[in-house]
């Protein structure tokens, strides 16, 4: 099985992002490796994780008046629109789309999220916490996730 783990070169050094991205990588694995009977539930959980992650990123972009906010938001919106547009019960189409999420995620992380991480560091937010929440553990701001079953 090809696993879509967060590799060392995908770590941005911002705990808030790195923890959320690891959770997303794990959820992508669960979605791709899980049985058809669990696909829709796993897809719904991935969408929820993505929505949470995107919301936090967008709040951070607003807080620092990030110049590339529009294009970054558009990337988020396109992915969510595609996932929300899947027909319920069409597992075959869902799996095709799901297989494209990991490559998109890797490119998005290497480009848009890396640029955002640099902007956050330059703005004095190296931990990535929203203003006034610097003391909030990153785990409280990461996407919700359920325990990941062993997939061997």
Search tags:
single chain; 152 residues; Four Helix Bundle (Hemerythrin (Met), subunit A); 5 helices; 0% strand; Hemerythrin_metal-bd; Hemerythrin
How large is the count of helical segments?
A: 5
SS-based class: mainly alpha
Give the H and E element order: HHHHH
Report how far the terminal alpha carbons are from each other. 9 Å
CATH fold-level label: Four Helix Bundle (Hemerythrin (Met), subunit A)
What do you see in this structure?
Pfam families: Hemerythrin (PF01814). One of its GO terms (molecular function) is metal ion binding. InterPro entries: Hemerythrin, Hemerythrin-like, Hemerythrin-like_sf, Hemerythrin_metal-bd. By secondary structure, the chain is mostly helical. It has a single domain (13-129), classed as Hemerythrin-like (Four Helix Bundle (Hemerythrin (Met), subunit A)), CATH 1.20.120. The protein contains five helices and no strands. The chain has helices at 15-33, 36-63, 69-84, 91-122, 138-141. Helix 1 (15-33) runs antiparallel to helix 2 (36-63), helix 1 (15-33) packs antiparallel against helix 4 (91-122) and helix 2 (36-63) packs antiparallel against helix 3 (69-84). The N and C termini lie close together (9 Å). Mean pLDDT is 81; it is low at 134-152.
């Amino acid at each position: 099985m090809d696993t879509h783990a967060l590799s060392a070169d995908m770590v941005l050094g911002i705990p808030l992002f790195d923890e959320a991205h690891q959770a997303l990588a794990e959820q992508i694995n669960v979605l791709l490796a899980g049985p058809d009977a669990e696909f829709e539930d796993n897809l719904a959980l991935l969408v929820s994780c993505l929505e949470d992650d995107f919301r936090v990123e967008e709040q951070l972009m607003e807080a620092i008046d990030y110049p590339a906010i529009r294009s970054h938001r558009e990337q988020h919106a396109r992915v969510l629109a595609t996932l929300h547009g899947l027909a319920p019960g069409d597992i075959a189409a869902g799996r095709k789309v799901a297989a494209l999420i990991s490559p998109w995620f890797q490119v998005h992380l290497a480009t848009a999220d890396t640029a955002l991480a640099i902007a956050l560091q330059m703005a004095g937010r190296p931990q990535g916490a929203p203003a006034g929440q610097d003391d909030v553990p990153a785990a409280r701001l990461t996407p919700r996730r359920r325990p990941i079953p062993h997939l061997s």
